[in-house]
Amino acid sequence: MLILGIESSCDETAASVVENCTVLRSDVIASQAMEHRLYGGVVPELASRRHCENILTTVQKALADAHVTIEELDGIAVTYTPGLIGALLVGVNFAKGLAFSAGKPLIPVHHIMGHIAANYIAHPELKPPYLCLVVSGGHTMLVEVQTHTGFRILGTTRDDAAGECFDKCARVLGYPYPGGVQIDRAAQSGDAGKYPLPRPNVSGSPLDMSFSGLKTAVINMVHHAKQKHEEIDAPSMAACLQTTVADILTEKTALAAEQTGYKTIAIAGGVSANSGLRAAMERMCAERGYALYVPPLSLCGDNAAMIACQGSYNFLAGMTADESLNAYASGTAIGEMKA
Ligand code: KG4
Ligand code: ZN
Fold first, then answer.
1. Could you say which of 117, 144, 190, 218 would form a disulfide bridge with 152 (CB–CB 3.0 to 4.6 Å)?
2. 51 and 179 co-located in one domain
3. What's the 143 CA to ligand 2 centre distance in angstroms?
4. Does 242 sit in the ligand 1 pocket, CB within 6 Å?
5. 133 lines ligand 1 (CB under 6 A)
6. What is the pLDDT of residue 338?
7. Is 123 among the domain residues?
8. Domain holding 308: CATH number?
9. How remote is the CA of residue 128 from the centroid of ligand 2, in Å?
10. What residue owns the CA closest to ligand 1's atom 8?
């Protein structure tokens, strides 16, 4: 089975072909990150326009790299939610046109389900059920992965995502977009005990998280220091932030594992590239004898391999769409189909 995946939910135009769900035949990513860096974050209209310009050549390269023709494909999978609406519409409309003209099934994929699937490519031995911590720029959630297409959310952030917290703090510390990876780099030379930061809990919902207070605390400390003409030690602030976020996420994951009894844990999404989080999760899992699955750095951020992989499982479960498929910026729970 050969599935083409297309991803355009944010600032990466990506296409990939996978064989039999998990075998990567090609993985092409045209990133716009350096262009958005000029503006300190993603400019939605610019993102849509770049997707428009790059999508055809990206898909052509994915097919060529895989040595696969459109006729040989079994289906065309595309991210249809969540994300920037103008950006999503480019991928969805392109996939619809291609599927319609080639007479191939059209397979809508939820972006967060795609992130979860990235681990199947790197670790084909990983099989549901297990517990997955999904941490990206827009989402932070603890998910019980019941089957390849069935999920239960155990906990989520009540406000900002962990990635949003990293990006906004990086900006105020003077690091360029995308900020998470800059925090990670700077933290290597910082003192993680220098600045005390809050670790908020959501009362009555022990598996839920909140990162907006932490973000505000960092921003306020930086602003107060500026007002008093004091220097903030940016690498140490980065180290404190990274340790705090990693500890919160790891504690919540450990609690979810205790409550559900799962001993197999995975992490996924852009923030799963964070070295502090990976180390904290490794320590926690080693101490408790849990098996930990971590995607390679190449599959943590947005890519189409994960969309093609999840698309393959959706296809096997009959989760296809007709030409009326639309894109949705938000509002669709993972596992739920809205087409
Ligand atoms: O999954 P992703 O590529 O896109 C979304 O679906 O949002 O996640 C992007 C997020 C950004 O907030 C980015 O700063 C963060 O992942 N990120 C990191 C690291 N690499 C990417 N955050 C912390 N440490 C990293 N090494
Ligand atoms: Zn993503």
1. 144
2. no
3. 16
4. no
5. no
6. 57
7. no
8. 3.30.420.40
9. 21
10. 270
**Averaged pLDDT in 10-residue chunks for the chain of 339 residues:** 98 98 98 95 97 98 98 98 98 98 98 98 98 96 97 96 97 96 98 96 94 97 96 97 98 98 98 98 98 98 98 97 95 68
What sign does the CA torsion over 307, 311, 313, 317 have?
positive
In a domain, 122, yes or no: no
Cβ 167 under 6 angstroms from ligand 1: yes
Q: What does the pLDDT read at residue 339?
A: 46
Structural domain for 93, as ranges: 2-116+299-336
